[in-house]
Design goal:
This protein is of the alpha+beta class. The protein folds into 4 domains: about 50 residues, no CATH class; about 80 residues, Beta Barrel (Thrombin, subunit H); about 90 residues, Thrombin, subunit H (Beta Barrel); about 110 residues, Pdz3 Domain, CATH 2.30.42.10. Helix content is about 15%, strand content about 40%. The protein is built from 7 helices and 25 strands. The strands form 6 sheets. It has a 7-stranded antiparallel β-sheet with strand order 7-6-3-4-5-9-8, with helices on one face. Strands 10-11-12-15-14-13 form a 6-stranded antiparallel beta barrel. Strands 17, 18, 21, 22, 23 and 24 form a 6-stranded antiparallel β-sheet that branches. The longest helix is centred in the N-terminal third of the chain and has 14 residues. The chain is globular and about 65 Å long. The N and C termini lie far apart (about 95 Å).
Length: about 375
């Protein structure tokens, strides 16, 4: 009895199974399913859709192109120990080729200080590099190799219009592991961070794309494969925790323009510390709701001080933070709204000491305009 029941159940199941034709190209179904000649899939289609999304295919395409132009940089400096014995110290980082003449952008800190710089290309060819320019305040370095043949290079994008949430890709040599790709998004813009020497890097791009020691100097790419930033720093000393920082590529473009024109690159300086306020907070402070950059400090002897910009008259507590109030609110720079925390470094990207900028200020209940002649940053190393 049990055997007959099992056989009957098996026959019922077989009535609904899916059969495959001998050539493996079509699925046919028994009664109760679509027509037997309905084409459901082919082996070729299965191969084409092997689990790869359009976003993954985009990542793969960009990586194949960008990896060829991303290089490994080794900087070697000879030092003396306590017993005056000479020993070499090495630092590794990344960089990327920007033209077919062998020019490479990287971080200044990757180049250490006057030692031997070696560049390893994707095909493992090694070259000694010449340091052409260094902008220590922006942690930028420009070096050059003399390749024996034409080499791939990356296109420089535009960091002016980047947005929080857009996809980014980072390529570099973390911990010496060559050609590593990580992906993520832009987590924030306009971040000011300090390095271990106390130097402030302004207007940085924050990303959750994994950046680790060895990634420094490598490219941060958009979904078109264009460079929008140079991977520069991480939060914390141990490794990636999802908070990394990249220098906007437009800052490097300015250095390149000055180098090609034979100008000595000097950083323009306004000389104010600011806090971005808008919306309800601005209205609570009796400021226009569109907000702007509320001046927190004016450095003595700076361009802002010379132009008569005003700092806070008192300090108020807002939540767990203190805010200076009563000073000038910068609403626009050269007619462009100061509507984000990094509005000043963005406005000064293509400026040089001696250039003039027009500030639209809210002061004493009314709007006024002030022209400021930019000075040189006194903290910049020569």
């Amino acid at each position: 009895m049990k055997l007959r029941a099992l056989l009957l159940a098996a026959l019922l199941v077989c009535g609904f199974i899916v059969l495959t034709s001998r050539n493996g190209r079509y699925l046919e179904r028994l009664p109760g399913f679509p027509k037997s000649n309905e084409r459901l899939f082919t082996a070729a289609e299965t191969a084409r859709t092997a689990g790869l999304s359009s976003d993954e295919l985009n990542n793969i395409d960009i990586y194949k192109r960008a990896r060829l132009a991303t290089v490994n940089i080794t900087s070697t400096v000879l030092r003396r120990n306590f017993f005056f014995e000479v020993y070499p110290t090495k630092d590794i980082g990344s960089g990327f080729v920007i033209d077919d003449q062998g020019h490479i952008l990287t971080n200044s800190h990757v180049l250490l200080g006057g030692g031997r710089i070696q560049v390893t290309l994707e095909n493992q060819a090694m070259y000694d590099a010449q340091v052409l320019a260094r902008d220590r305040r922006n942690d930028l370095g420009l070096i050059k190799i003399s390749p024996k043949a034409k080499i791939p290079f990356l296109q420089l994008g535009d960091s002016e219009h980047i947005q929080v949430g857009q996809k980014v890709l980072a390529i570099g040599n973390p911990f010496g592991l060559e050609g590593t790709l990580t992906t993520g998004i832009i987590s924030s813009i306009g971040r000011n961070i300090q390095d271990e020497k106390g130097t402030t890097l302004e207007g940085m791009i924050q990303t959750d794309a994994a950046i680790n020691p060895g990634n420094s100097g490598g490219p941060l790419l958009d979904s078109q494969g264009s460079v929008i930033g140079i991977n520069t720093a991480i939060y914390g000393a141990q490794g990636n925790i999802g908070i990394g920082f990249a220098l906007p590529i437009n800052r490097a473009k300015t250095m390149l323009e000055d180098y090609r024109a034979g100008r000595s690159f000097r950083k323009p300086w306004l000389g104010v510390a600011v806090a971005y306020v808008a919306g309800d907070l601005a209205e609570a402070l009796d400021l226009p709701s569109q907000g702007g950059l509320l001046i927190q400090d004016v450095a003595r002897g700076s361009a802002a001080h010379t132009a008569g910009l005003r700092g806070p008259r008192q300090i108020v507590a807002i939540g767990n933070n203190e805010l200076g109030v009563g000073g000038d609110l910068i609403m626009a720079i050269n007619g462009r709204a100061a509507d984000r925390p990094d509005a000043i470094p963005r406005a000064l990207t293509n400026k040089r000491p001696g250039d003039k900028v027009e500030l639209t200020l809210f002061r004493g209940g009314r709007t006024t305009k002030v022209t400021v002649t930019l000075g040189e940053d006194p903290n910049e190393e020569p």
